[in-house]
Amino acid sequence: MNIQTKRRLVDIAVSTRVRLARNLKSKPFPNRADEEALKSVCKDVSEAIFESNSYIAEEFKFIDMNAIGDSEKERLMAAHLISPNLALRSHGAAVMVNKNEQISILVNEEDHIRIQCILPGLALEDAFETANKIDDLIESSVEYAFDDEWGYLTACPTNLGTGARMSVMLHLPALTLTNNIDKMLHTVTRCGLTIRGIYGEGTESMGDLYQISNQKSLGVKEEEILLSVKSVARGIIKREREVREDLVEKNDIAIQDKIMRAYGTLLYAQKIEAKEAMHLLSVAKLGVDMDLLPEANIETIDKVIGNIYPSLLRYAKGIPDEANIVDIRRAEYIRRMLRKNDCGMQEVK
Amino acid sequence: MICVKCKKKPAVLQLTIIKNGQKSELNLCEDCAKESVINSYMFENLITALFHIANEDETVLVKADHSARCEKCGMSYGELNKYGKAGCDQCYREFSQLFTPVVKKIHGKSQHMGKSIHSRQEVMRSKQEIVILKEKLEEAVRNENYEKAAEYRDLIKSYKQ
């Protein structure tokens, strides 16, 4: 694989996430556990990691959800290391995060333990292997709730069996722009997989980002889940790339116009909502990939995308942002970032 | 569309009932929906909806169990029905007749395959092997390859012993 195709593959597959849901046999699941039981789960799980003789112990730090402020919660959420659900728990919830922030162990979310590994690009094997190792390490010092027929027992019956959810986040602007996305998403559903928004269950898609993942976790081996998600992801990536190449070849003025206008709006808008900004930045990314926007820089666009999201915590709590002010600041920030790049200046933080 | 039960008021709810593999649809008005077996028709989530459909399947069984509570976590049938989530590992055993059709509907399977806890690894290996052999047996029968089918049958027997 040459560098060019590799870069493009990473462009489309944004990230891979594997999570394993586990519960301790000795305690009720978090939704039925009292504070004492929740604390005891925290203790058991943290000891399983920190008192192990594994090198893993030194990699992790323990974060009590009660001990951190909203801004840190916000940061962890944006990095997908914790879920809004965990951040909102009033007591007994914690997370263990490793140094490079690719692995997180959520304690007392919907299940006692959720082991999660997030890697950039399409990397299901590596992500699964990592999560699996952590699972083995924890199991060596606790007893999991397990049933011979239904596998690992989880609070929600949708996670029974392997307790595994494997997902790939895909950036599909060309399929979206050419109105091919619905057909594609339909195919995903037919293959027994589901599509979610970028912040998991129930969230909508933003910026042409789609998360595909397995729907069924019982009666299928981990390896089979992995293969099905991987092959569907690969199929979609291939299609997105074909459509992009087709767009370049056709030299379609209407499409080029859409892309240039999107960038123009980003450069000049005075107030902009997150959803619109995400969409326009996504189209601009496509423009860069199609060599239509030589002045734009993909790293800057990615950085902007990472920083313009509305407050997830406020969103989770149901408090609306002070829309007008935020929208004005967001537009200001986008203009500043993109123009800096225009003049060839390095951004100074 | 008007309600199929009272034939007067407009139907606001469509119920899909799958009974013995046969699908039927009922369009009911608010009042008739409240009156029918499904007393809470505002499904909180998919699972809760599935629970209700599951009840339709096994009305008698489930009705007899309404007062049941999980010994370990105190979850009642009503609470489970409402939230659609188990309170502990014991709930799955306590309310197995409620969970069995739900699990089957969600996953289409009822035998866990793949990784298992250390202490059950050996048992699970043969359990899962039997599932795979049974699938192979069925396929052999479908292809009228009876010699192979007999081989699989014997293998299954040896695993069960």
Index terms:
heterodimer; A: 349 residues; alpha+beta; Creatine Kinase, Chain A, domain 2; 8-stranded antiparallel sheet; 14 helices; 10 strands; globular; disordered C terminus; B: 161 residues; mainly alpha; two-stranded antiparallel sheet; 2 strands; 53% helix; flat
Explain what the structure shows.
The complex is a heterodimer of chains A (349) and B (161). Chain A is of the alpha+beta class and 349 residues long. Chain A is globular. In chain A, α10 crosses α11 and α11 runs antiparallel to α12 (298-307). Chain A has 14 helices and ten strands. Chain A has helices spanning 3-12, 35-50, 56-59, 70-78, 84-88, 124-139, 173-177, 181-190, 222-250, 253-268, 274-289, 298-307, 312-317, 323-342, and strands at residues 13-22, 60-64, 94-98, 103-107, 113-120, 146-147, 151-152, 164-171, 193-196, 209-214. In chain A, 49% of the residues lie in helices and 16% in strands. In chain B, 53% of the residues lie in helices and 9% in strands. Chain B has a two-stranded antiparallel sheet. The radius of gyration of chain B is 21 Å and the shape is flat. Classes of the chains: A alpha+beta (349), B mainly alpha (161). The interface between A and B is large, with 39 and 33 residues.
